[in-house]
Each structure stands twice: as C-alpha cells, then as structure tokens.
Amino acid sequence: MVPVSYYVALSAILFSIGTLGVLIRRNAIVIFMSVELMLNSANLLFVAFSRLYDLEGQIFVFFVMTVAAAEVAVGLAMIVAVFRNKRSIDIDQISSMKG
Amino acid sequence: MTPDVILFLILAVVAIASALGMLLSKNAVYSALYLILNLATIAVFYLLLGAPFIAMVQVTVYAGAIMVLFLFVIMLLGAEQLRRARTLGWQQPVAVVLAVVLVAEATYIIFTKTSSLPDIEAAEAGFGSPQAIGELLFNQYLLPFEITSVLLLVAMIGAIVMTRDGKKKE
Amino acid sequence: MFTPEMILAILPEISLLVLVGVILVVDLSISKERKGILAWLTVGGLALTFVLTFLLSRPGDETELWGGMIRHDWLAYIFNLVFLFGAGITALFAIGWEQVGKRGEFYILLLTSTLGMSLMSAAGDLIMLFLAIETASIPLYVLAGFMTKDEKSPEAGFKYLLFGAMTTAVMLYGFTLLYGFSGGETNIYELAANIQAGELPVLVSLGTLLLVLVGFGFKVSMVPFHFWAPDVYEGAPTPVAGFLSTASKAAGFAVMIRFLLVIFPAANIPQWVIVIGVISVLSMALGNTLALAQKNIKRLLAYSSIAHAGYVLMGVAAAAHTSLGVTSVVYYLIVYLVTSLAAFGVVAIVWHTTGSDDVSAYDGLSRRSPMLAVAMLVAFLSLAGVPPFGGFIAKVLVIASAVDADLIWLAVLGVLNAIIGLYYYLIVLKHVYLFRSDEDETPIKVARPHAVALTICIISIIILGVVLAPWFEWTSFAADAIF
C-alpha cells in the first residue's frame, strides 16, 4: 500500500504552491483561489492521517469545507464591493492607505 | 512498485501540474479551471483513502458550488486578466518566514518522521461512510455542527451587507 | 443526554443567539425611522447576558463538556464576561452612527462575532477551536468593510479577510500536523498527553508551533503578522476598530495561552519561550517606534495596539515558568479592553463633529469639550502606564511576571519600551490640552449613550488601577484553570 509519507509530501508541495500563489499573484481572486488550495492540501493530509487513526480527521475536513464555503461567499462579496469603488481588483491598486 | 503506488504517482502528477497551472495562468478563468481539476483529483485521493462521503462533498460543494461562484465573479467583474506587477511590500517578511518554516518542516518530516508511520491498509467496510460520519457528527461533534449553522447565517448576512447598498448608490 | 451543566456552560452563546434572532425579526418589522431601537435592544440584551452569565454560568466541577468540545473553566468564564462587556460598549458607541448604528445587520454581526470569541476562549478541541475562530472572524471581516459607500472601509474589510484567510490556512496546516503526529487526537488536552508519550522531535514540534502561531499571531496582531492592523483600523468604522483591538485581541490571547501552555510544555521544547520573548520585544519596539510618526490617530492607536500585544506576550512567555504569567496576561487584557475602548470611543465622537481622524483635529479639545479631554487624558495615560490608572498595574504585573520567570532581559526591554511609548501618548495629549485651533468656540457635542459608555470605561480604568485585590484573585483563578 501507499505509505503515508507520500501523502505528507504531496500535501506539503500543494501547500507550498498555494502559499506561493498568495505571495506572488496580484489578482485578488487568484490569491483567494490559492488560499483554497492551501486549505485543500491541509484537508488531504487530514484524510490521509484519518485513514491511519480514526474518523476525526474526516470530520475536521467536513467542517473546513463549511468554513471555506462561508469564507468564499463573504470574500467574493467583498471583492465585488471593492470593485464597485475602485473598478479594479489589482492588489496594488486597492491600497489607498499607506504609511 | 505496486499498482497502488503507480496510481498514486499518476494522480499526484496531475494534482501538482494542475496546481502549478493555477499558479502560472495569466488568465484567472484558466486558473479557476485548473483549480477545479486539482480539487477533483483530490476527491479521487479521498476515495482511495476510504473517505467516500468526504469525496462526494468535495465534488459537490468545493469543485461544484464554490468554484462556480469563483467563475461567476471573475466573469461578472471582467477580471480575467491583470498586468503583472511588482511584489507587495507587506507580504515580503511573511513570505520569508513561511518559506523557511515550510521548507524546513517538509524536508524534515519527509525524510525522518513519517518513515516511521505505518502504511495505509485497505479500508474496512463502512469506514468513512455517510452513516459513520453522521453518527460521529451528531454525537460527539454536535456543538460544532450547530455552530456551523450560525456561521452560514453570518456568511449569508455578510454577503448581502457587502453587496446590497452599492446598487442603491448607482 | 443533555445535562444542566451542558446548557449552563453555553448559556452566553445561547443567549447571544436568541438575541440575534430577536434583532433579525425586529429589524424586519419596524419602520426605518425607528431603527435606533435596535441598538438599545442589543445593549440591553448584552447587559442581560452579562448578568446571566455572571450569575449562572460559573464553572462547576465538570469542566469537559459536549464531548470534550468545550471546557467550562474560569479562563473561559472570565473571558466570556470580557467579550460581552466589550461588545456592549462597542454597541453603545455605534448608536447614532448613520451608516452603521441604524442597521440591524451591524448588531447581528457584532453579536455573532462575540459568540465566536466566547467559544474560542472555551474551545478544548481543535475542531471547535477552528470553527470558533472562523465564527469570530468572518463577521469581523464584514464589520470592517461595513460602510460600503465609504472609500476605505470595503478595502479595509477585504484586506483583513485576505490576510485572515491566509493565516487561518497556515494555522490549519499546523493543526493537521498536530493531529497526525499525536496519533489522531483532536482534543487539546489528550493531544498534549499523546505528544508527551510519543516524544516528538524538537524540530517538528517547533515547526508546528510556528505554523499555528501564524494564525494566533494574526488575531493578536503581533510582529510579523501585524501588517493588516493599521490599514484595517484606519478604514474600519471606529467602534469596530475598537472592538478589533480589544475583544478580538483578547480572544486571540485566550486561545494562545491555553494552547501554548497545554501543548508545548508537554512537547518538551523550552525554545518556545525564547520565540515568544523575541516576538514580544519586536512587537513592542516596532509598534512604539512606528507610532511616533503617525499623523492619523487611528493608525497611531493601531501601532500602539501592536505594542500592547508585545507587552501581553511578555506575560505569555513568563507563563511557562510562573502562574503569575497567566494572571498578568488576563489582567492586562481586561485593562487594555476598557482603556482602548475609551480611546477609540473618543476618536469616534470627535470624528462625528470634525469629520477628521488627524491628530491635528484634536487641537484645543480641552476647550471644545472638557469631558472628552478628561476621558482622553485618562485613557492615554493608562495606555502609557502612568499611575494611578489600570495600565500602570497591568504593566507592573507583566514585568513582574517576566522577572519572576527569570526573563530579566525581557523585563528590561519591556520597561525601556514603556518609556518610549510614553512619548507619543503625551504628544497627543499636548494637542488636546496645549494647542489652540480656530474652532475653539464650537463645542463638540457628546450624545448621551456615548457619554454613558465613556463614563463606564473611565470608571473601570480607575477602579482597575486603584482596587487590585478582587480582580487579581479572579485572574489567578483563570491561571489555575488551564491545567
């Protein structure tokens, strides 16, 4: 069978890609998608560990998905609100506050 | 190499490639589509790991509902393409801290700790089934389950608050 | 299946939820002119919840309830009261604010966020903790962006959300590793026992600590996860900024002390004290020096808030060795809550009349409104740590705990920072008392609810600074409750 360490490695790679996306992309929506990728890498690891131990990991994933749905709903609504004001979702342009 | 490992490797390549695709696509719509592929691949992993219920939720809620919302907003705002620009000041230190922690952690874990973890065995019948999940959810995890209802209510109200008055203004 | 203890343990949450329901219905059924009643309903409901919690929800013998999801102990009890108090004062300051205080959604979001915070302080399980943090955060994101017609507010909300979502994802990854390496435990206390038995390698546990600390650090706005604070405070409606800097920060610390003190001593890594100590010094130094240069009072308070997170972290680091650590942290957070709420309250009131958040708008405040000037004086001197106000006792306690824990370097740096901090608080007071403006003759009106809220805060600051014994005893209960 597949060793758990393979899953740990895969999820670490996906998590790093997600983190990179958050840090290097300028498009607010793509940054947000990268956060979803980070959450998913954590979920994958939860399910893999849950296979080793007990079902608690799967329950955790269930709740993470609920939270992600709520966060995305609010986040996208905010992107729309910001866009109405600024006509842009470029992270550099929505920084009127500096200092 | 057993068929299991080969299957894992193929899926892992698809998952990583689609994640990179999301990261590197200039067009946000492509990014979203790559992410959907990635989420679907992860759903297959869930099936392999004895989590059929979570796999189905992943496909319907994540790849389905959430990503459709993303695509909808991208197209609504016409935000497919944005010029490439400099890096952001306030993110740099975070980036450094995260990168260091992450790389150290990942290398260390992969090469030392997890080799002692047991391999994954074939799932016994009923592991991760809706029934098993449901029983746990409505006994031990009843309180968190109830709290999610509050969370979803708030998300609904929040989304309405953020988008409602804009219309009146224009 | 349900015991009375279970219901009493979540009494504040139930009460808040009922209040949310009432406000939802009342908001729908009353005409636009009478929306002001919603604020009073919220304040009354919160006061009732506060009294009910105080009287009925006192921790009993049974601490682990709801399948280990929550712990009903003194730490949770005291923090619950703190959050309810903070929400009540915030609601009072929001009254009469056209874009904010006359909308039912504002109060609903405020109450659900408070609910999330009280669960955060009680959470005994990673799953509950994660959900509670999100239940507290998501309404706060929306509250920060609440004034959608404003230029800065939605931007502030969005920034807050993006940074929050990212740090939460990192924290979740830390949780995953904890779950995996503890042999499949999500209960914080059992997890600690398992880690101890399994003897995790130092590097793994330290790495996991850092991942989890990213999430907590964001909530308490410590360096290097403080970037959001000035921008968000500046853009958010002022009462919300006050709530963010006090209740939300207190919730973050409540989680942090429980988590760190339960899991990491068990994991046998003494290094975490150093990590926290260094972060504490950086937060104090950075907050205090950057605050010196600020022209906008909300940004100034934001940097001051980062510095105060540093002072509290001093107590957290000390808590590893002495029970005075947790006591001082709780005491500091209570004092900071009333003080900072008063400061943000004055800012909100001045903004109503002058429409400006610049420090120069405070020129001649002592002539325009002596009462506000006195409130500002008390709040800022308490923030600076001058006796006889609460801030002084709080600072003495954290520094004493650092000394008690043999962290002398930390205590010395803390004292030095307190002296630097004094300077910018006094600059603002100079504007208030010594400078003149052209509008000296136009008084600033203080609405009655705002005056009530300010008076409560000011009296609390003085009481916390003069009468020590009962509060100290309470906060020591909290310190004992963690284990």
In short:
Chain A has 99 residues and is an all-alpha fold. In chain A, 78% of the residues lie in helices and 0% in strands. Chains in contact: A-B, A-C, B-C.
Q: What do you see in this structure?
A:
- The complex is a heterotrimer of chains A (99), B (170) and C (483).
- Chain A is built from 3 helices and no strands.
- Chain A has 99 residues and is mostly helical.
- Chain A has helices spanning 4-24, 28-52, 56-86.
- The relative contact order of chain A is 0.13.
- Chain A is 78% helix and 0% strand.
- Chain B is mainly α and 170 residues long.
- The longest helix of chain B is centred in the last third of the chain and has 28 residues, at 142-169.
- Chain B is globular and about 55 Å long.
- The N and C termini of chain B lie far apart (63 Å).
- In chain B, 35% of the residues are buried.
- The model of chain B is unreliable at 166-170 (pLDDT under 50).
- Chain C is mainly alpha-helical.
- Helix content of chain C is 76%, strand content 1%.
- Chain C is built from 20 helices and 2 strands.
- In chain C, strands 1-2 form a two-stranded antiparallel ribbon.
- Chain C is globular.
- Chain C starts with a helix and ends with a helix.
- The model of chain C has no long low-confidence stretch (mean pLDDT 88).
- The chains are: A mainly alpha (99), B mainly alpha (170), C mainly alpha (483).
- At the A-C interface, helix 1, helix 2 and helix 3 of A face helix 6, helix 7 and helix 10 of C.
Give the SSE map.
The complex is a heterotrimer of chains A (99), B (170) and C (483).
Chain A: H1 4-24, H2 28-52, H3 56-86
Helix pairs in contact in A: 1-2, 2-3
Chain B: H1 3-24, H2 28-48, H3 52-77, H4 92-111, H5 130-138, H6 142-169
Helix pairs in contact in B: 1-2, 2-3
Chain C: H1 4-9, H2 11-29, H3 36-56, E1 64-65, E2 70-71, H4 74-94, H5 104-122, H6 126-144, H7 153-181, H8 188-198, H9 202-220, H10 228-235, H11 238-266, H12 271-292, H13 297-318, H14 324-354, H15 365-368, H16 370-384, H17 390-404, H18 408-433, H19 448-466, H20 469-481
Antiparallel strand pairs in C: 1-2
Which structural class is indicated by helix and strand composition of chain B?
mainly alpha
- CATH topology name of chain A, in short, is Helix Hairpins
- Share in β-strands of chain A: under 5%
Helix content of chain A: over 70%
What's the CATH architecture name of the domain at 1-82 in chain B? Up-down Bundle
Structural class of chain A: mainly alpha
Assign the CATH architecture of chain A.
Orthogonal Bundle
Regarding quaternary structure, how should these chains be classified? heterotrimer
